[in-house]
Design goal:
- The protein is α+β, with helices and mostly antiparallel strands and 111 residues long.
- It has a single domain, classed as SH3 type barrels, CATH 2.30.30.100.
- Helices cover 41% and strands 28% of the residues.
- It is built from 3 helices and 5 strands.
- A 5-stranded antiparallel β-sheet has the order 4-3-2-1-5.
- β1 and β2 form a beta hairpin.
- The longest helix is centred in the C-terminal third of the chain and has 21 residues.
């Protein structure tokens, strides 16, 4: 009975920490200059680009494609900041089995 109560008390302390929304400031602290990001503003506009400069209350967003929007973004206007992770292309995915077969053949022939 005591262990059940202890577990419930621990869960009561841990669950709110996982459910807490991260603020844009918290999200920005995890990123570094040059990171490719997607920024969702509070007015539902979406901006993409690279972080040029980071200040406590704002950051500069550089254009990822020539002709795209770039400029200063205030953190008070930001709803969410997400880092863009590089994805594998179809060519890279299709080459993986070729490399595996080549290495296996190499190991069997010379190993």
């Amino acid at each position: 009975m005591k262990s059940t109560i202890a577990c419930l008390l621990i869960l009561a302390l841990v669950v709110p920490a996982f459910g807490r929304q991260r603020t844009p400031q918290d999200q920005l602290r995890k990123l570094s200059r040059g990171s490719s990001v997607t920024v969702t503003l509070k007015d539902k506009r979406i901006l993409t680009g690279y972080l040029s400069e980071i200040a406590p209350d704002r950051f500069l967003l550089g254009a990822s494609v020539p002709g795209d929007w770039s400029g200063e973004v205030l953190l008070q206007d930001v709803a969410n900041i997400r880092e863009n992770k590089p994805r594998l292309s179809i060519k890279e995915i299709l080459l993986v089995p070729v490399w595996v077969v080549w290495w296996l053949g190499y190991l069997l022939w010379y190993g």
